Amino acid sequence: MLKVPVMQNKFRAISLSYKNAPVEIREVIALDEGSIHSLLVKLKEFFSITDTLILSTCNRTEVYYSHDLDMSAEIIKLIGLEKGLTNVVDYLEYFTLLNEDQEAIKHLFKVSVGLEAQVVGDMQIANQVKRAYQASADLDMAGPFLHRLMHTIFYTNKRVVQETAFRDGAASVSYAAVELIEEITSNTYQPRVLLIGVGEIGEDVAKNMVHIPEAKVTITNRTFEKAKVLADELGFEVIPFEQCFEAMKSADVVVSSIMKSEPFITKELVKSMEIPSYKLFVDLSVPRSIETTIEDVPGVLLYNVDNIRSKATETLERRLASIPDVEKIIEENIEEFFNWKKEMMVSPTINKLKNALEQIRQEEMARFLKNANDKEIAIIDKVTKSMMQKILKVPVVQLRAACQRDDADNMISILSDLFDLEKVSDKKNEA
């Protein structure tokens, strides 16, 4: 008998990350919340793509989706359209395409847990993934597959926190920046640090500044109230955003983590400042908010998200040592997810078989019980339902067993032919 394949959408991924794309490429491709929403809508309307997740951080821009065809070229073109790029084909070499369920799903697990982060175990990524999932759910672009996948990932994250040392301490990108500040200002008495922007990364930097207790920290943000709440909580000074250029002049360290399409801190601005010994600029924005040419100014040091490297701390060493435990937890939960996925593959056939048998039962009941009383009908109804359950038991068990040995296609084909399930399904749809 010919083996009839069961057509299923594959879960796929398109990834552009720090591993193969420098920051000057990543900032061109990076998507803000508005662009992500717009791209999701286009993917839904133009290509009927389902179970979609778009993740864009300072380290990566990735699109996960379910489709029976490889839609990577179309998606990359849409990203180019969204970003106003006429030459998006020039960026193709920086994208990695994952077109198999196993590799795309495993990659999403590893990204979500923090195994793929620049600073291993970065805690911010878990919240970024949750927000990406929420954006898809809000547009009804998360079906049963993605819902189950994401909740399995959240459970995996929970196990990693509870069962390993992978999330112990604070070894995120923002913490790496604080370590850098501590190292460079080690010979400066009460270094003056200006934090511009209190988004997720900026807020994390501010909270990690407790590791440099002698530093004099000032916070500023476009929304003054947001900065004030954080400054009050941490005991830092806060200034209106309009005063940040003036505050830069006296600061030893300037950390910028604001979203802006063009440089906020320019070479011309920095040249106008008096720099007696040094001035450290840390650019945690993607796109970058500080002109790279400020390094030409004597005394200026500039670091961005790519060249910040965390020192070999005890925390980081513990995290690295716990990676095998994290990978084991991931493998266990991926296996559990794929068992569910296999069950989902055969559940339509099980339902069709139940409907086929129920249709036969109802037809025969109607044919032979025209003159029966209520008591007789109740007894026969109970008996025939019991018989149907017993008949169903063996094929259902065999189908599930076939799933586990990856041979469900053949079993589905046999059952479909034996019971003419497609015909039964068509009749049900017509009704």
Automatic annotation (TrEMBL):
Site location (Important for activity): 107
All residue ranges annotated as the Tetrapyrrole biosynthesis glutamyl-tRNA reductase dimerisation domain in the record: 326-421
GO molecular function: glutamyl-tRNA reductase activity; NADP binding
Entry binding sites for substrate: 57-60, 122-124, 128
Record-linked InterPro entries: 4pyrrol_synth_GluRdtase, 4pyrrol_synth_GluRdtase_dimer, 4pyrrol_synth_GluRdtase_N, GluRdtase_dimer_dom_sf, GluRdtase_N_sf, NAD(P)-bd_dom_sf, Shikm_DH/Glu-tRNA_Rdtase
The protein's annotated pathway: Porphyrin-containing compound metabolism; protoporphyrin-IX biosynthesis; 5-aminolevulinate from L-glutamyl-tRNA(Glu): step 1/2
GO biological process, one term: protoporphyrinogen IX biosynthetic process from glutamate
Stretches assigned to the Quinate/shikimate 5-dehydrogenase/glutamyl-tRNA reductase domain: 179-309
EC number, UniProt record: 1.2.1.70
Catalytically driven reaction(s): (S)-4-amino-5-oxopentanoate + tRNA(Glu) + NADP(+) = L-glutamyl-tRNA(Glu) + NADPH + H(+)
Active site: 58 (nucleophile)
Origin: domain of life: Bacteria
Binding site for NADP(+): 197-202
Keywords: NADP, Oxidoreductase, Porphyrin biosynthesis
Residue ranges annotated for the Glutamyl-tRNA reductase N-terminal domain, each copy included: 14-164
Domain notes: Possesses an unusual extended V-shaped dimeric structure with each monomer consisting of three distinct domains arranged along a curved 'spinal' alpha-helix. The N-terminal catalytic domain specifically recognizes the glutamate moiety of the substrate. The second domain is the NADPH-binding domain, and the third C-terminal domain is responsible for dimerization.
Summary of subunit composition and partner proteins: Homodimer.
Additional observations: During catalysis, the active site Cys acts as a nucleophile attacking the alpha-carbonyl group of tRNA-bound glutamate with the formation of a thioester intermediate between enzyme and glutamate, and the concomitant release of tRNA(Glu). The thioester intermediate is finally reduced by direct hydride transfer from NADPH, to form the product GSA.
Function: Catalyzes the NADPH-dependent reduction of glutamyl-tRNA(Glu) to glutamate 1-semialdehyde (GSA).
Entry similarity comment: Belongs to the glutamyl-tRNA reductase family.
Protein's name according to its UniProt entry: Glutamyl-tRNA reductase
Lineage of source species: Bacteria, Pseudomonadati, Bacteroidota, Cytophagia, Cytophagales
